[in-house]
Amino acid sequence: MRYDFTKMQALGNDYIIFNAIAHPELLKDAASLAKRLSDRHFGIGGDGIIFAAPSTKADLKMRIFNADGSEAEMCGNGIRQLALYSYYKGLVSKLNINIETLAGVKNIQMKKSTSEKIDSIKVNMGAPILEPEKIPVIAEKNNNSFAKKNITVIDRNFDFTFVSMGNPHAIAFVSDLKNFGVEKYGRIVENLTEIFPKRTNVEFIEIINKSEIKMRVWERGSGETLACGTGASASVVACILNGVTENKVLVHLLGGDLKIEWEKNGNVMMEGNAEVSFEGYVEI
Q: At residue 121, what are phi and psi to the nearest 5 degrees?
């Protein structure tokens, strides 16, 4: 059967979007579909697949599958793409919507420019999770009530800070991010299941100043990507916990910039854009 799809990206973090409200049968074999269609040589190509699915708790539900077929709890760049897709496709008619994820219901505010184009999307990412057993990570909290652990990877020691934004993140600070071996170290850290029972996303951070950082990410199930919204959010939380930045930070990623703020009410706000790359259909 022929199914329409929309290829989208947010800061180069790209996904294939399907309407599973109209076609719920697509979810029956979502994992193998994600692996096949995400292949950049033999498929459509992308970091994974996102399905717009029905929800009884929100305007719609996001189901997201990584390029290796694993299902993710949440994706900050992906949810902005889904919000834009849902508005343009008429699945929602308002600019302020709620999307259910495996990490809870997230509020999204879309803003239009004078040309009626949506040029900014802000997501309430919710409060970060710092309890080791909920991240999950095998580590102890320090005296400042967040979890850190020194981990030796190949030839280098890292002091990782652990944060969950609905999905696990391990964050380390480095001095020369441009030339750093993200794949060399990230691939190993992701799969240290004796420390990370559900594997982990891995972020490497370089501090520019109190309000700016650079970040590169090794995403669980996808490898190094150009951007990661939950990773940027978790990284800013880690920076604040370690006392190296203020609560409002501009995050420079390989694919572009995100504005992250850890508000006094405990919620993390993420702001960025999303774009349609192209549309098409595929026989499944």
A: -130, 120
For CATH 3.10.310.10, the residue range(s) in the chain are 2-123+273-283, 132-266
Position 144 scores a pLDDT of 81
Residues 125, 165, 228, 232: which is the catalytic one? 228
Distance CA 191, CA 274 (A): 30
Architecture of domain 132-266: Roll (3.10)
- How confident is the model at residue 254, as a pLDDT? 97
Determine the pLDDT at residue 114: 74
- Among the options 10, 67, 74, 75, which is catalytic? 75
* Residue 115: predicted pLDDT: 75
Active site residue 239: no
Does 228 participate in catalysis according to the annotation? yes
CATH number (2.60.40.2550, 3.10.310.10, 1.10.3720.10, 3.20.20.10) of 2-123+273-283 reads 3.10.310.10
- In angstroms, rounded to a whole number, what is the distance separating the alpha carbons of residues 5 and 264? 39
**Which is nearest to 280 in space by CA: 19, 38, 1, 3?**
3
Query: Taking the CB of residue 37, how many other CB atoms lie within 10 A of it?
Result: 21
Kindly give the parts of the chain with pLDDT less than 50. none
pTM of the predicted structure, to 2 decimals: 0.91
